[in-house]
Amino acid sequence: MKRAESKEKKVEKETEKQDIAALEQQLAEMEDRLLRATAEFENYKKRRQRESAELLRYGHETLIRDLLPVLDSFERAILSSEGNRDYQAFHDGVELILQQMREVLRGAGVERVWPEGEQFDPHRHEAIGVCSHEELEPDHIATVVEPGYEIHGRVVRPPKVLIVRSDTEEPESVEPESEEPDSEKPESE
Predict the structure, then answer these.
(1) What is the CATH number of the domain that holds 145?
(2) CB burial readout 88-119, b (16+ within 10 A) else e
(3) Assigned domain for 143 exists
(4) What domain range is 149 assigned to?
(5) For 50, 60, 146, 157, which has the most beta carbons within 10 A of its beta carbon?
(6) Which pLDDT band holds residue 166 (cuts at 50, 70, 90)?
């Protein structure tokens, strides 16, 4: 009986050794997979960082490429005006360049904001003064002094506006800080 018991213990020990060896092998394989996954993730992070840096550096390439013909048009207009003093032709050429510039910006998702007559919104408009207006209610925009611009609905530059004062406010004299206001409303877009 002792022999049978000792043989059983030997078999048990051998089975335990085999189980331990199998578990150690599984552990080694898992450690190897973990190391590989960690290395792959680190490489992925580095690649994403490089791609992000490149995107920041060259992200405007398409817009710049679209603006270069506008720049070329300005240079041609200036060159042609040097030998020719025809103001009307120069004016018409500059208007075409302006239209070209607006088309490029529109293609990039930039829209001109001209909120004349709309309710004033301090999150979207910059009030630079107040005025009286017979046809508009208080807190509405009477005059756009400088147009604003949005890109995909986000304000890039708020329009500078004069708002209709309420009857209780004293009128202020307003001197626009910017250059001459854009007297034309934007083309319907």
Answers:
(1) 2.30.22.10
(2) eeeeebeeebeebbbebbeeeeebbbbbeebe
(3) yes
(4) 110-176
(5) 146
(6) confident
Reported in sequence order, the residue ranges of the chain that DSSP labels E, i.e. its strands, are 110-113, 126-131, 141-146, 148-151, 154-157, 160-164
- Would you place residue 35 in the very low, low, confident or very high pLDDT band (cuts 50, 70, 90)? very high
Could you tell me if residue 95 is inside a domain? no
For residue 134, give Cα distances in angstroms to 149, 166, 176: 28, 11, 21
What is the C-alpha separation between 168 and 163, in angstroms, rounded? 14
Could you tell me if residue 21 is inside a domain? no
Question: How far, in Å, CA of 132 to CA of 170, rounded?
Answer: 10
User: How high is the mean pLDDT of the chain?
Assistant: 87
Residue 114 lies in a domain: yes
Rounded distance, CA 3 to CA 92, Å?
113
pLDDT of residue 137: 93
Question: SS3 breakdown of the chain: % helix, strand, coil, rounded to 5?
Answer: 55, 15, 30
| pLDDT of 181 above 60 | no
- State how many domains the chain has: 1
Total Cβ atoms within 10 A of residue 50: 10
pTM of the model: 0.63
